[in-house]
Fold this protein.
Amino acid sequence: MEIDIDSAIAAYCARQGLQGWLPRAALIDMDGVLYDSMPRHAAAWQRMMREQGVETTLEEFFLYEGMTGAATIDLLFRRHLGRSASPEEVDRLYAIKSEYFRSQGERIPMPGAALMLKELQEMDITRVLVTGSAQASLLTSLQKDYPGAFSAERRVTALDVTHGKPHPEPYLKGLEIAGVPARDAMVIENAPLGVQAGHAAGCFTVALTTGPVPEKALREAGADIVFPSMQAFAENVRRLVRYSAD
Ligand code: CA
């Protein structure tokens, strides 16, 4: 499949009133982008909620992806139990869900992610991690799996924001850390709510179909371009970044 990079950038520039696009930073989501972790998150969520007497589908968690754990628990409570979750319930249930996630073993790096990070590094693109996760086990493993790709201060997690995705706040915080305006950054996402957040922040938003969410849902959420896998994106990231540098 040929991805029309030129048209995607031209459309973004037209929308933003730009003459050209020179990305200097990449704001990168974690679950489903750097790690093939979404199936395990979905299984952990389903198991935890089943113990609360609530039946869910695995698919629905791919649509909630990007929200903070607290927001997901509250949504499930309101939807299935007709009330909000208390802060105590949120803390307790998120800890259980996190334990069920951890118990499934080692994280699986997303194929192609290491190549993407190497290419970004070589092109001197500033990398900032922007995740709805607050899971220390995932965050500490980044250095091991992707050495040198993210410095410790270039991270936005669920603990750093008031409003999680789809609110733009996580990506606006990411821009602040990167020290660039929205037009100079690209967001790399796999979930509709994350794409919405990147789009609302004003960034060129790259979406990857790394799970069951269809391309159409990512486009409707505001993706500027969609790649069929992380590997496909990694192999094209030089074309994307060098477009306006040529
Ligand atoms: Ca994600």
Q: What stands out?
A: The longest strand covers residues 126-130.
